[in-house]
Specification:
The complex is a heterotrimer. Chain B is an all-beta fold. Chain B has 3 helices and 34 strands. The chains are: A mainly beta, B mainly beta, C mainly beta.
Chain lengths: ~425, ~575, ~500
C-alpha cells in the first residue's frame, strides 16, 4: 500500500509538469509562399516600347483580399486561386521620331498557384475606345407592388453619347449575354476571346440618320412603354421612353403589351413569350454595331457548343446553340453579378474588366428599386461626361436609385416613399 | 400582407367483407370465398388567394370554339377556387378452391372472378374563369362527374399438379386469366374484347441426398407468362384540348380597363385515342434452388418484354386565325374598345398541337437474382441473408416522334412553321448490380435482436441510345403535310434549325461506382406483448469520390434515425 | 412524426425500466441502502475509468435503476457565450439501469430531451462545442431554436476465467429547428462503440485496455421563406474570420467526423488503493458545403490526452489528480475553378490552432454517521489554459485561469426518507489573458464585438454557488421516489449573473 502511495505522489507532479507547447499566431505554421513566374505578352505594336510604370493587382479568390505590387519580383503568394490584373504605361517611338504614351491592361481570372503550377500569363491589350454610345444605366431589379410581390415591365436601359459629336443610334443593337456570371462551365469551343455569346439581340430601327443623339444626351429604352402606375402604384411612367422592346406571343398565358413607344427591331430572342432583363442581375449587357444585314447575320453567326453539368442526380453532357457577336463589333459591355454568387465575367476582359451589382447576394431583399449607374467625371457645358475605362467595377456606381425614379419622384421602396433626391449618377447631387 | 388561405377536408368510408364457406360434402370443391369492398370518399379543397399578376396576362373565358373576347388581368384580384372530388370504388371477388386426385397426379385448383368499378361523382374544379388562381392558367375546368366510369372484369382458373416420379417430384402450375373492360363505348377498339393471359410454372425437385452429414436438396424451375395491363381513366377518357390564339392584343394607354381589347380564337380538339390497346408484358424465367441443412440458395434468370407500353406523343396540325393590326389605332380618338371589323387584318396559319396517349413504349428487361439464407451460427447467434441482383433494362419507343425546336428566327418561332418528325429511339439502357447482406443476431436470453444490414450498390450505369438529330421528314404549316427532309432542307435558313445537336458525350456510358451503406437496428422484446426497436440508417457508409467525363464528383449520405413500438394484444 | 416518436419513447422507457429485470435478480440490499451508496461523494472522484466497459463493473457492486423526468433552465442576464444563447430550457425524460447477474453486468441508458434555446447569435450550427470554429453563422438576431434529442446507450461486461471483457454502444440523434427566418434545420447523429478487455495483475488490480470508435454526422439546412429574399450567411473559420469565397452562399452544410480513442486503466479490484487511467483520442471532421459538389471546406483534427490518478483509502478519504491536454488544428482547403461547380481541391492551409491544458487536484473526506447519515467535504483546485490562434490575419485569444472550489454534502434520514443537501462554492480568477484582433471585415464587426464581450467575461474573475437539496422516499422495500432541485448561481463581472436550475423526480428500484 505504501508503495502505491508513493507511486501516486510521483504521478501528480509529473502531470502538473506537463506544460503544453503554446502557439503564438504565425509561428511554425509558415504558410508556404510561392514566387510565381509572370509572363506579360504584349501586342505586336508595342513590342519595342519602354515600360514607364506597371501595377499588378492580385485578388485572392478564397479570402477576397487584394494586394498591389509594383513589380513582378515583389509578388509572392500562398497556394490558391487568384484574379490577376495588370496595368502598364509604355512609351513607344512614333515613326516620326516623337514619343507616344500608351496605356495597356491585362486581366487573367482564376489563376491557379501551387507548387507545381507557378506561371501567370497575362495577355495585354491597348485600352479600347470605340467612340460610340455607352450604356449609362441599367435598371434590372424592377419594382415591388405595395403588397410586396415582384412587378415586371418597368425595367430599362439608358444609352448615352459620351463623345463630343453627334451620334446616330440607327442600327445600334442591344445584347444580353447567354451565359450567367454566377455559373461557369467549360465550354467547347471557348470563343470568349473572339466573340460574345448572346441570347437576345434587339436593334434600333432606322435608315441611318433617323435618330441623332447630341453629345451629353441619352436614349431611354424600356421593356414596356406604358404608365406602369396604373397596374402598380409603386412603379413609374414609361410612356415617355424613346424605344421599347415588344415580343409577339401567341400564347395568352404570357403576353407582352405593345405600348405607344417605337418598337425595337427584334433580331433574335431566346424566349417564346416576352423578354425581361435578368431580375437579379446575373448577366452582361452590351451594345454593338453589326455591319451586316439581319438575315445574313442570323444565317451565319450561330454556333454550337458542348459542356457538362454535374448535379447530385448525375453527370449530364449538354449541347446548345447560340448566337455570337465578334468582340470587334461591340462598342460597350457591362457585366453584372452579386458578390456572393459571382464566379466569372461572361465577356472578354478587353470589353469589360470588372463588374457591378445591385444587392450583395442571391435573392437579396434590398435589391429592388435600385439600378447601376455610370459615374460622372465632370460637367461640360452643363452636360455630364461619364467615366468609361472598360472596367465596370470602377466605372459604375452600384446599387443606386434609378434616374427615372429620381426624375419622376416615384416610390423608392415597397411602402411607396417618394424619392426626394436628384443626382447625376446616383451619388453626385445635382 | 397577401391573403392566401386554404382549407382541405377529406372523409372516407369503407366497407369490407370476407366470407369463406368450407364445403365438406362436395368432393371437388373445398372452399368458396367471397370478398367485397366498397369505399366512398369526399374530398374538398377551398382556396382564397390574392393574386397579383407579375405581368399583364389574359384569362381565356370561353368553353366553346370560335372567336371570343378575352379579359386582361391587370390589377390584383381575389381568386376563389374549389376542388371537389367524390370517388367511389367497388370491388367484388369470388373464388373457389378444390382438389382432386387423378391417378398419381395430385391436383389443387382455383377458379375465380373479380370485378372493380371506379367513378368520381365530384364537381371537379369550380372557379370563376375570369379570376383564376394563377394568372397564367390556360386550361379549363372539367367536372369529374362528366368522366365515364371504369369497370374491369376478369376471370381466372389455375391448377397446381404434383406428380411424384420415384424419388423425384414434379410440380406443374398452369393458369389462364381473362381481362376486359365492360361497358366501354363501341368506338374504342378495346370495346367488347377480352384479353387472355396464360401462365405456366414448372418445378422439378431432384431426390434429396446427404452432404457433409446434412440433408441436401436441389430443384430446377421454369416459368412463362403474360400480363395484360388495362389503361387507366386518364388514358381512356382524357380531357379535350383547348387551344387559344391571340388575334388582337390591344392595350389602351389612356383607358386600359375599358378601351383595351383582346380577341381570341379558340379551337377544341378531342385527345382520346380510340385505338388504344392494353399493354402486354411477357416474362419467362429459370431458377435453380438448393438447400443444405437449414441453408437455402436460389438463383434466378429472367427476361421481360413489353412492347405496347403507354406513352404520350404529340400531334401537330395547322391552325388558322386572323391577326389584326392595331398600330394605327390612336387611343385619344377611341370612345370604346376598337371594332374588329375596322382593323386591317391578315390570315395566319401556325402549327400547334396536343398530346395523345399511345402504345409506343418499349421496355426490355433481363436480370439475375440471387438469394441465400444461412442457418444461425451458434457462437454469435447470427444468421446471414444475402440478396443480390443484376438488372439490365432497355427503355425505348417504337414510334417516330414530333419534336418542336425552341428557336426564334426573324421574330417568328420556327415551330410555328415547321416541326420535324424524328426517328428517334428516345431510349436508354440502365444497368445495375447490387448485393444486400443482412446479419441477424438474436440473443433470446435477453430478448434482444440486432440487425445489421450492409447495402452494396456495386455500380449503376446508364447509357442513352444514340439519337439521330436529323429529322426524317417535317410538317409544313402551308399544307399540313409531311415533306421529306433532304440535304437541300439543311441549307434553308429556317429548316436548318430542325437539326438537333447532341453532345457526343451524352451517348457514352455514365457509371456511378460503388456505394455501401450500413444500417443498424436493435429490437428489444419485452414480455409477450411489446417490441421496441431503434434504428440508425446510413450512419456508416462508404461513398468514394469518382470521376465522370474528367470531372470529380463527391458524395455524402444523410443519416436518419427512428423508433418503432409494436403492441400485440 | 416527432410527437409519435416522443410518445413511443416515453412508453418504451417506462416499460423497459420496469420489465428489463427478467434474467437479472433484484439486489438483496434495500433500495435505501443502495441509494445511500450511490450518493457517496467518494464515488465522484473517478470519471475516466468507467469509460472502459471492462472496468465498469467495478464502479459499483449494487444494482440500481431509475426512471425519471427533469426540467432544466439556464438564464443569463447577458450571454456569457453569445454563440450559445443567453437562455435555454429543457425537459428531459430519462431511464437508467445498472444490473448484476453472477459475474455479468448490464447497463443501459435512454434519454429524451425537448427544449428551447434563446438568443443564439452568430451561430446556426448545433453542438458548437464539438464543431467550433467551423460554424455557419449570420448576423440576424432571431427567434428561439427548438431542440429535440434522443439518446440510447447500452453495455455489457463479463468475467471469464482471467479475462474481463466488455462492450458498449450508444447512439444520440438530435433535431434542431426554428420556425422563423433564418430557418435552420439541423439533424445530428452520433454513434459510439467501445470494446474493452482486461486481466487481473499483481493480485489486487485489474489492468484493462479499451478501444472506442465514434462516427458523427450533422446536416444543416438554412432556409429563407420570405418572398423578398434572404440574409447573408457566413462560414466562420476561427475567431473573427470567415471563408470569404463562399460567404452569402452555401446554406446547406454537412459535418462528417470520426474519432478513435484508446484507453489504458489500472483499477483496484477491491475499490481501495491506487487507480490510474490514461486516454488518448483523435477526433477529426470535415465541414462540407453540400451545394458545391460537396466540397470539404475545412478539416479539423482534435487530439487529446487525458490522465487520471486517484488514491482511495479505506478510511473514507481519497485524493485525485487529473490532467487533460489537447490540441485542435483547423485546416482550410483551397479550391480551384468553379467550372461546372466541380471545385477541385488544389491545396490546404493550416490556419487555426487551439491548445488546451487543464490540470487539477481534488480530495474527498467522508464520514458516515450511522447507516445512512453522513457528511462529506470535497475541495478542489484546477488550472486551465486555453490558447486559440488564427494565422492569417494573426489573431489570438489566451485565457489562463485558476479555480478553487469546495463542496460539502450532508445526508440525514428524516423518518423513512433520506434527505441530502449539497452546497458548493467556486471561485475562478484569471492568471494571464491576451486578446488580439486583426483586420476584421466590416460585415463581421458585430461578431467581433460579441467575441470581445465573451472574452471580457472569461478573462475576469467569477464566482458560483451551488445548492442542491434532495429527498429519497422509500415505497416498500424495493422502490423509492427521489425528488431533487438544484440551483447554480454564477456571478460575473459588472453585475452579470447566470442561473441554472434543475428540478427532477425519479422512480428508483
Amino acid at each position: 500500500m505504501k508503495k502505491l502511495f508513493y507511486i501516486f505522489s510521483l504521478i501528480v507532479p509529473l502531470m502538473v509538469a506537463l506544460n503544453a507547447c503554446d502557439d503564438l499566431p504565425g509561428d511554425d505554421q509558415s504558410l508556404a509562399m510561392i514566387v510565381p513566374e509572370v509572363h506579360v505578352i504584349l501586342p505586336d505594336t508595342v513590342r519595342d516600347g519602354r515600360v514607364v510604370s506597371e501595377r499588378y493587382e492580385v485578388r485572392n479568390v478564397t479570402t477576397g483580399r487584394k494586394a498591389i505590387y509594383l513589380s513582378k519580383d515583389d509578388i509572392d503568394l500562398s497556394v490558391g486561386l487568384y484574379d490577376v490584373s495588370y496595368e502598364t504605361e509604355m512609351q513607344i517611338t512614333t515613326p516620326d521620331g516623337g514619343f507616344d504614351t500608351l496605356h495597356l491592361q491585362a486581366y487573367e481570372p482564376s489563376v491557379l498557384i501551387r507548387e507545381t503550377n507557378r506561371t501567370i500569363t497575362l495577355t495585354a491589350y491597348v485600352t479600347r475606345n470605340a467612340d460610340d454610345f455607352i450604356i449609362s444605366e441599367i435598371f434590372f431589379t424592377g419594382s415591388l407592388r405595395p403588397n410586396g410581390s415582384q412587378y415586371y415591365g418597368d425595367d430599362y436601359v439608358k444609352i448615352f453619347n459620351n463623345t463630343d459629336h453627334v451620334l446616330y443610334a440607327d442600327g445600334l443593337t442591344f445584347l444580353e449575354s447567354k451565359f450567367v456570371t454566377t455559373q461557369k462551365y467549360n465550354y467547347t469551343p471557348d470563343i470568349m476571346s473572339q466573340a460574345m455569346t448572346v441570347q437576345a439581340l434587339y436593334t434600333i430601327p432606322g435608315s441611318g440618320k433617323d435618330y441623332p443623339v447630341q453629345p451629353g444626351e441619352e436614349l431611354w429604352i424600356v421593356d414596356t412603354g406604358i404608365d406602369h402606375r396604373v397596374a402598380n402604384e409603386n412603379s413609374f411612367d414609361c410612356s415617355g421612353a424613346d424605344f421599347e422592346w415588344y415580343d409577339v406571343s401567341t400564347q395568352p398565358a404570357h403576353l407582352d403589351i405593345d405600348g405607344p413607344v417605337t418598337n425595337l427591331d427584334k433580331w433574335y430572342c431566346y424566349t417564346l413569350s416576352f423578354f425581361v432583363l435578368h431580375n437579379r442581375g446575373f448577366r452582361a449587357w452590351a451594345l454593338a454595331r453589326i455591319p451586316i444585314e439581319k438575315e445574313q447575320y442570323l444565317a451565319n453567326y450561330s454556333y454550337t457548343y458542348n459542356y457538362i453539368i454535374i448535379v447530385p442526380a448525375g453527370v449530364y453532357p449538354m449541347s446548345q446553340t447560340a448566337y455570337k457577336v465578334p468582340n470587334d463589333w461591340i462598342v460597350d459591355a457591362v457585366n453584372c453579378s452579386v458578390e456572393a454568387e459571382r464566379v466569372w465575367n461572361v465577356t472578354d476582359p478587353s470589353l469589360d474588366r470588372g463588374w457591378t451589382y445591385c444587392g450583395t447576394m442571391d435573392h437579396d431583399k434590398t435589391r429592388y428599386f435600385h439600378s447601376v449607374r455610370r459615374k460622372m467625371l465632370y460637367l461640360k457645358n452643363g452636360r455630364p461626361v461619364l467615366k468609361d475605362t472598360n472596367n465596370s467595377t470602377e466605372d459604375f456606381n452600384p446599387h443606386c436609385i434609378p434616374s427615372e425614379i429620381e426624375n419622376q419622384g416615384t416610390a423608392i421602396d415597397v411602402n411607396g416613399t417618394p424619392c426626394t433626391q436628384r443626382t447625376w449618377d446616383g451619388v453626385t447631387p445635382r | 400582407m397577401k391573403m392566401n388561405e386554404f382549407k382541405s377536408s377529406y372523409n372516407r368510408i369503407n366497407y369490407t367483407s370476407d366470407l369463406t364457406l368450407t364445403l365438406n360434402r362436395i368432393a371437388w370443391l373445398k372452399t368458396l370465398n367471397l370478398n367485397a369492398s366498397a369505399s366512398y370518399q369526399a374530398d374538398r379543397l377551398e382556396r382564397h388567394k390574392e393574386v397579383a399578376p407579375q405581368r399583364a396576362s389574359v384569362a381565356p373565358t370561353s368553353m366553346e370554339e370560335g372567336v371570343h373576347d378575352g379579359q386582361y388581368l391587370l390589377n390584383g384580384y381575389v381568386a376563389d377556387y374549389v376542388s371537389d372530388g367524390k370517388p367511389l370504388n367497388l370491388f367484388v371477388k369470388l373464388r373457389g378452391e378444390g382438389s382432386a386426385r387423378l391417378g398419381r397426379l395430385n391436383n389443387r385448383y382455383k377458379v375465380g372472378g373479380e370485378w372493380t368499378f371506379s367513378k368520381n361523382y365530384g364537381d371537379g374544379q369550380v372557379y370563376d374563369l375570369t379570376r383564376p388562381l394563377s394568372a397564367s392558367w390556360t386550361t379549363r375546368p372539367r367536372a369529374y362527374k362528366d368522366i365515364p366510369s371504369l369497370q374491369v372484369l376478369s376471370f381466372y382458373a389455375e391448377d397446381n399438379a404434383t406428380l411424384p416420379l420415384g424419388a423425384h417430384r414434379l410440380e406443374v402450375q398452369a393458369g389462364i386469366r381473362t381481362i376486359q373492360i365492360p361497358g366501354l363505348d363501341e368506338r374504342y377498339s378495346m370495346s367488347g374484347r377480352a384479353y387472355i393471359d396464360p401462365r405456366f410454372n414448372g418445378k422439378w425437385t431432384l431426390p434429396p441426398f446427404s452432404l457433409g452429414g446434412r440433408n441436401a436438396e436441389v430443384y430446377l424451375a421454369a416459368g412463362w407468362g403474360a400480363t395484360t395491363k388495362m389503361p387507366t381513366i386518364a388514358y381512356l377518357f382524357p380531357q379535350v384540348n383547348y387551344n387559344d390564339f391571340i388575334q388582337l392584343n390591344y392595350y389602351d394607354v389612356q383607358n386600359p380597363t375599358e378601351h383595351s381589347r383582346i380577341s381570341l380564337r379558340t379551337y377544341i380538339d378531342p385527345t382520346v385515342n380510340y385505338h388504344l390497346r392494353p399493354a402486354v408484358n411477357h416474362k419467362w424465367e429459370v431458377r435453380l434452388g438448393a438447400t443444405l441443412g437449414k441453408n437455402r440458395l436460389t438463383l434466378t434468370y429472367f427476361q421481360e418484354r413489353l412492347r405496347s407500353g403507354f406513352r404520350f406523343s404529340s400531334y401537330y396540325a395547322p391552325y388558322t386565325y386572323t391577326k389584326y393590326d392595331a398600330n394605327e389605332v390612336h387611343s385619344e380618338d377611341l370612345k370604346a374598345a376598337p371594332d374588329l371589323a375596322t382593323l386591317p387584318s391578315e390570315e395566319v396559319k401556325v402549327l400547334d398541337g396536343y398530346s395523345k396517349v399511345d402504345n409506343g413504349s418499349r421496355l426490355d428487361k433481363q436480370g439475375v437474382e440471387l438469394t441465400l439464407s444461412t442457418a444461425r451460427w451458434r457462437p454469435i447467434s447470427t444468421a446471414l441473408t444475402v440478396t443480390g441482383a443484376w438488372f439490365r433494362s432497355t427503355y425505348s419507343n417504337s414510334q417516330m416522334l414530333y419534336q418542336p425546336v425552341t428557336v426564334v428566327v426573324d421574330n417568328q418561332p420556327v415551330r410555328n412553321r415547321y416541326i420535324g418528325y424524328y426517328n428517334c429511339d428516345d431510349g436508354r439502357v440502365n444497368e445495375q448490380l447490387n448485393t444486400n447482406f443482412m446479419f441477424d443476431t438474436q440473443i433470446t436470453r435477453w430478448g434482444l435482436v440486432f440487425t445489421t444490414s450492409v447495402q452494396c450498390m456495386w455500380y449503376v450505369s446508364t447509357r442513352r441510345l444514340w439519337q439521330n438529330g436529323v429529322p426524317d421528314s417535317y410538317l409544313d404549316v402551308a399544307d399540313g403535310e409531311l415533306h421529306p427532309y433532304t440535304s437541300a432542307s439543311r441549307q434553308d435558313p429556317i429548316l436548318q434549325h430542325l437539326v438537333r445537336t447532341y453532345n457526343d458525350q451524352l451517348f457514352s456510358r455514365l457509371t456511378v461506382p460503388t456505394a455501401v451503406y450500413i444500417n443498424l437496428k436493435a429490437t428489444k422484446i419485452i414480455g409477450k406483448h411489446l417490441k421496441v426497436a431503434v434504428f440508425a440508417n446510413r450512419m456508416l457508409d462508404y461513398l468514394p469520390d469518382y470521376k465522370s467525363n474528367g470531372l470529380t464528383v463527391r458524395r455524402i449520405s444523410d443519416p436518419y434515425f427512428g423508433m418503432e413500438l409494436n403492441f400485440t394484444l | 412524426m416527432m410527437k409519435m416518436m416522443k410518445q413511443t419513447f416515453v412508453v418504451a422507457a417506462v416499460l423497459l425500466g420496469a420489465l428489463v429485470a427478467q434474467g437479472f435478480a433484484p439486489d438483496s440490499a434495500t433500495v435505501m441502502n443502495r441509494i445511500a451508496s450511490q450518493e457517496s461523494e467518494l464515488r465522484t472522484l473517478q470519471q475516466l475509468a468507467w469509460q472502459n466497459p471492462a472496468v465498469k463493473p467495478l464502479q459499483q457492486s449494487w444494482a440500481l435503476s431509475s426512471v425519471g423526468a427533469s426540467w432544466q433552465s439556464r438564464d443569463e442576464s447577458t450571454a456569457i457565450q453569445a454563440q450559445l444563447g443567453d437562455r435555454a430550457t429543457l425537459w428531459a425524460f430519462d431511464a437508467d439501469t445498472h444490473m448484476k447477474h453472477n459475474t455479468a453486468t448490464l447497463w443501459g441508458h435512454a434519454t429524451y430531451n425537448n427544449g428551447r434555446q434563446h438568443h443564439v447569435l452568430w451561430n446556426e450550427t448545433s453542438q458548437p462545442e464539438l464543431l467550433y470554429p467551423y460554424l455557419l453563422a449570420d448576423s440576424v438576431n432571431s427567434a428561439r431554436i427548438n431542440v429535440e434529442r434522443y439518446a440510447f446507450a447500452g453495455g455489457y461486461a463479463d468475467f471469464k476465467g482471467r479475462i474481463a471483457w466488455g462492450a458498449h454502444i450508444s447512439y444520440e440523434a438530435g433535431l434542431y429547428y426554428r420556425h422563423v427566418d433564418p430557418r435552420p434545420r439541423n439533424v445530428t447523429a452520433d454513434l459510439q462503440v467501445v470494446a474493452g478487455i482486461g486481466t487481473p495483475i499483481m493480485g489486487s488490480h485489474l489492468a484493462a485496455l479499451a478501444l472506442k470508435f465514434r462516427k458523427y454526422k450533422q446536416t444543416n439546412d438554412v432556409a429563407f421563406y420570405s418572398e423578398l429574399g434572404s440574409d447573408k450567411l457566413f462560414h466562420l473559420t476561427g475567431l473573427t474570420n470567415d471563408y470569404d469565397r463562399f460567404a452569402g452562399t452555401g446554406s446547406s452544410t454537412y459535418y462528417k467526423g470520426y474519432e478513435w480513442v484508446i484507453e489504458a486503466n489500472a483499477q483496484p479490484l477491491a475499490g481501495r488503493g491506487l487507480a490510474f487511467s490514461a486516454q488518448a483520442s483523435r477526433f477529426s471532421f470535415d465541414n462540407i458545403l453540400t451545394a458545391f459538389n460537396k466540397l470539404p471546406m475545412a478539416h479539423l483534427t482534435h487530439q487529446a490526452v487525458r490522465a487520471e490518478a486517484a488514491w482511495l483509502s479505506e478510511h473514507g478519504w481519497g485524493l485525485q489528480a487529473h490532467s487533460h491536454l489537447s490540441r485542435r488544428v483547423g485546416t482550410e482547403n483551397i479550391f480551384g475553378d468553379a467550372a461546372a461547380s466541380v471545385y477541385p481541391k488544389i491545396g490546404s492551409l493550416d490556419l487555426y490552432h487551439e491548445n488546451r491544458f487543464d490540470v487539477g487536484i481534488e480530495g474527498v473526506w467522508e464520514h458516515a454517521i450511522g447507516r445512512q447519515a453522513g457528511i462529506a467535504l470535497h475541495p478542489a483546485v484546477d488550472y486551465h489554459h486555453r490558447n486559440e490562434t488564427y494565422n492569417n490575419p494573426q489573431e489570438r485569444w489566451l485565457v489562463n485561469d485558476m479555480t478553487l472550489s469546495l463542496r460539502a454534502k450532508g445526508a440525514m434520514p428524516m423518518g423513512r426518507a433520506l434527505c441530502n443537501l449539497l452546497v458548493g462554492v467556486a471561485w475562478t480568477a484569471p492568471t494571464q489573458t491576451e486578446l488580439t484582433w486583426n483586420g476584421v471585415k466590416t460585415e463581421l464587426a458585430s461578431l467581433q464585438r460579441l467575441l470581445s464581450r465573451d472574452f471580457y467575461f472569461a478573462s475576469h474573475h467569477h464566482t458560483s454557488i451551488l445548492v442542491r437539496p434532495s429527498v429519497n422516499l422509500p415505497v416498500g422495500k424495493d422502490f423509492a421516489l427521489q425528488a431533487a432541485v438544484m440551483w447554480l448561481h454564477g456571478s460575473y463581472v459588472t453585475g452579470v449573473h447566470a442561473d441554472n436550475v434543475n428540478a427532477s423526480v425519479a422512480f428508483i428500484f
